[in-house]
Amino acid sequence: MKASRTLPGLALSTALVLMALGSLVGCQSLDDFEKQIKSAGEPLIGSFLPSSGPVGGTVTVRGFNFGTDKGEVVFMNKDGLSVPAPISAWNDEFVTLSVPELGIATGDVPVTLRTAAGKVTSLTAQFTLTRS
User: Fold this and answer.
1) Which of 28, 52, 106, 132 is the least buried, fewest Cβ under 10 Å from its Cβ?
2) What SS3 class is residue 5?
3) For every one of its 132 residues, what pLDDT tens digit does the chain have, with 9 covering 90 and above?
């Protein structure tokens, strides 16, 4: 596998884990692995830009297979309930949203994406909530 680049839109740690998984399924390069991810059709959250922020802050979720029709991104609140985020832009690899009110001051928050077709990210991503 090439080590000179990472998969677009993915945090380095996520890309490294996925590269290791890719080698287990016979991918010979990052390009090959990226094609395999995209062809699988399952949504995958790769990173948040920024990776942390306050309630009301604007965040871009980057990844693959989100679809072109708007779905839903939910943050888990302190009681484990899903809180949908207001979405301002959506495409197959990027979603721009505002962090919803979660009832906690700071900490890591699980985030899940559901496409308009009903597919859900199989790996829950973590966003870090900060004070404003």
Assistant:
1) 132
2) coil
3) 333 344 445 555 555 555 555 555 566 665 666 666 666 678 989 899 999 999 999 999 999 899 999 999 999 988 889 999 999 999 999 999 999 999 888 899 999 999 999 999 877 889 999 998
How far is the C-alpha of 85 from the C-alpha of 29, rounded, in Å?
Answer: 35
Point out which residues pair with 61 in neighbouring strands.
Answer: 48, 95
Residues in contact with 111: Cβ distance below 8 Å, sequence separation at least 6, in sequence order? 45, 48, 61, 73, 74, 75, 76, 124, 125, 126, 127
Q: Which amino acid, 72?
A: E
Name the region of 38 (left: φ>0; alpha: ψ -120 to 50; beta: rest). Answer: alpha
